[in-house]
């Protein structure tokens, strides 16, 4: 158990609910550059800029550009997870379930440029970002005790970013997270993939945003966030890693179009890659969740979200009709 005054981490389950918390005391030391200003003006102050590589943990990999780089990735300097301690969930008694906060927590710097967002990058460069996601998913999911790899991006202070230089994060965990478990359980109730059917319905609906040869983007029927948008490969794949380069390029093109529009309505967003767990078969998709609203008492006490922008109006905005 976590001892008072000892800076260790733990994964803990709620008394009765299937709800988990990562206790990561060392995270409190991370710098909050975005809290001071929404943009780091001076590149010298940014840990993620070229020239400051020595300020980050040792590099795990990079995509080279001559003697410099286009992307690089390394362990998070203030990791919420670490490959140390007891990876198996244990229990002391009826109410307390826990394990070490076992896993891996990496950062991917998406560009050497300090003031360019993901949506502002060229499509070919966004493709490199997606291919790096695949690299980390493949590598980390093959490691012992890893049950799920979560890839996500926090853009802007309201989305949880502490540094503005464009980056993504990867967290590989020792349990299948409850939200993913819930999705799998719901998915299994259908005879065939519900998302393949949903794609067919939404491509002809008022919620269609954009359709290309391999990809459909639409605003979900019951969104949790204003202007929330889902990007689905039309082919049934369980992981980004199962897409061909041509298909991944299509994802990059759609992602750029969606993010350019998202930036018009929200300065903060989360990008969430909904991968299947290692041994499951769910339909992969990417969620863009603009964070220009705050969940309040009703949302926190009931789990039901109040939203004032309909997905049909949001899709019209994405299509350029409003
Ligand atoms: Zn920077
Ligand atoms: Zn499917």
Descriptive notes:
The protein is α+β, with helices and mostly antiparallel strands. The chain has one domain (10-24, 42-318): 2-Layer Sandwich (HIT family, subunit A), CATH 3.30.428.10. Helices cover 24% and strands 24% of the residues. It has helices at 33-36, 123-141, 178-188, 194-202, 245-265, 297-302, 311-318, and strands at residues 10-13, 20-23, 59-65, 68-75, 90-91, 97-100, 103-109, 148-155, 167-173, 208-211, 215-218, 229-233, 269-274, 285-290. The protein has a ten-stranded antiparallel sheet with strand order 3-4-7-9-8-13-14-12-11-10. A four-stranded antiparallel sheet has the order 2-1-6-5, with no helix packed on it. Strand 5 and strand 6 (97-100) form a beta hairpin. Helix 2 crosses helix 5 (245-265). It is globular, with a radius of gyration of 20 Å. It binds zinc ion (2 copies).
Gross morphology: globular
> Structurally, how many domains make up the residues?
1
The share of residues in helices is: 10-25%
Please tally the β strands and state the result. Answer: 14
Strand content: 15-25%
CATH architecture field: 2-Layer Sandwich
What is the terminal separation in angstroms?
55 Å
Order of helices and strands: EEHEEEEEHEEHHEEEHEEHH
Characterize the largest beta sheet: strand count, sense, and whether it forms a barrel: 10 strands, antiparallel
Fill in the CATH topology: HIT family, subunit A
- Gyration radius (Cα, Å) is 20 Å
Bound compounds: zinc ion
The CATH class name reads Alpha Beta
Give the overall average pLDDT. Answer: 92
What strand order characterises the main sheet?
3-4-7-9-8-13-14-12-11-10
Q: Could you give me the name of the CATH homologous superfamily?
A: HIT-like
Oligomer: single chain
Unreliable residue runs: 1-6, 35-42
How does the helix and strand content classify structurally?
alpha+beta
